[in-house]
Amino acid sequence: MLAQNGIPTAEDLARVRPTAARLAQGPVAVTECFQNIPCDPCYHSCKRQAIKPFADINDRPQVDHDQCNGCGMCLMRCPGLAIFVIDQTYSETEALVKLPYEFLPLPAAGEVVDAVNRAGKVMGEARVEKVQSGAKLDGTSVVWLSVPKDLSMEVRHFKIREVR
User: Fold this and answer.
1) Taking the model in full, what pTM does it have?
2) Per the structure, how many domains does the chain have?
3) In a domain, 164, yes or no
4) Core-most of 70, 97, 131, 160, by most CB within 10 Å?
């Protein structure tokens, strides 16, 4: 499936998903990098060594979810925009999804957007909680979305409802 349409299969996602017990402990990085390419900035950015050393630069990143504190340094350094931070402890009903974003205009905190899945299908509404941007982020902004908890492992992008 991934090779034909760019959308990972349920099996692909199961291999990178943190356990339910780990998700219940707080923010954690999820690497949805499914291609063997020469890339390892995520490994070098992780001060906690939660991203395991690569045997070969073409390896895909492997996260030790128990070591990860969800700081997002790897997310900001991933040139493939393939890392997300999920916090299912955000509230009783909502999770926080931090995702890389390289488009303009940037959304504003408080704005309601359409949350979309990996295939671009609208899954529901999300609220922009925070937008991080600046020179330290190398041109990649990080948008924090609050989404219904049951969508936290599905929502991977969003659509701004109206262009300002």
Assistant:
1) 0.91
2) 1
3) no
4) 97
